[in-house]
Amino acid sequence: MLQDAENEDGGRVPRPPAEESDFPLVPPAQPVLERARFADRRAAGRALAKALRTLALPAPLVLALPRGGVPVAAEVARALGAPLDLLMVRKIGAPGQPELAVAAIAALGACGSSAAQDMSGPCPQTVVDVGLMATTGADQAFVDRGVARESAELERRRQRYLQGRACVPLDGRTVIVVDDGIATGTTLRAALKALRAASPPRDLQGAGRAGPRAIVLAVPVAPAQVLAALQAEVDAAVCLWTPPLFMAVGAHYRDFRQVSDEEVVAALSGAASPQA
């Protein structure tokens, strides 16, 4: 059964009912606790695609979190014959620890619902980790400055990556959100919030719903506790590896070099047609 999403006021927004035959999603096998490190992001993407192909995923659309999630997602999209688009995300790092996200902002790339086709300037959604703010000494003013700075960078990247790319409507799609791994989960929560914000709620008569058929989270590696918390925000989650001792995401790859803007643009150019 599809779970409800959350609106901007914290209330629950019902997702459209789906018949069992419409979305026969088979739960994946339990994540692997121990395995060799992934060779690189593309190898992780191929392994993730293999797991996803065991599921019934009607009308799939793959959304990558750039930049690191793009090579992973490109392999998934290729294997599923699905279009590839972006969920733009920027983290606000803790004071003196830029890789530790105390907050994150996110917005859709070119995709959107039919009720909100103009995504030329989507309003970023913000998620804040209040606990980490307290432990790292980040106050609200620090977060606000970070949000302003990263909002500008998010828009720069959106323009750079998409370059007038055609819109991929979310309506009726099984949306697969892909990253190269999860650490605290803050950036993914922001991404999922942006995805829900692009799906307008039903009217009082239960009509007029537009948006995804279902949302699937797919990552190669994640801490078990964080993954369990995120599962409540999606319809299904596929994770290949939940290490008992989780360190940084990059520690679970042999090659974790930075992904360039040019690689992101090339991956989008080589993906299936947005009308697929």
Describe what this molecule looks like in 3D.
The protein is α/β, with parallel strands linked by helices. The protein is built from 7 helices and 9 strands. It has a 7-stranded mixed β-sheet with strand order 6-5-4-3-7-8-9, with helices on both faces. The protein has a two-stranded antiparallel ribbon with strand order 1-2. Helix 1 (41-52) runs parallel beside helix 2 and helix 4 crosses helix 7. The radius of gyration is 18 Å and the shape is globular. Mean pLDDT is 81; it is low at 1-24, 112-121 and 202-208.
Write down the secondary-structure element order: EEHEHEEEHHEHEHEH
| Number of helical regions | 7
| Helix/strand/pairing category | alpha/beta
Radius of gyration: 18 Å
Unreliable stretches: 1-24, 112-121, 202-208
Strand order of the largest sheet: 6-5-4-3-7-8-9
Largest beta-sheet details: 7 strands, mixed
Percentage beta strand: 15-25%
Shape type: globular
Give the rounded overall mean pLDDT.
81
Number of strands: 9
Tell me roughly what share of residues is in helical segments: 25-40%
Distance between the termini: 26 Å
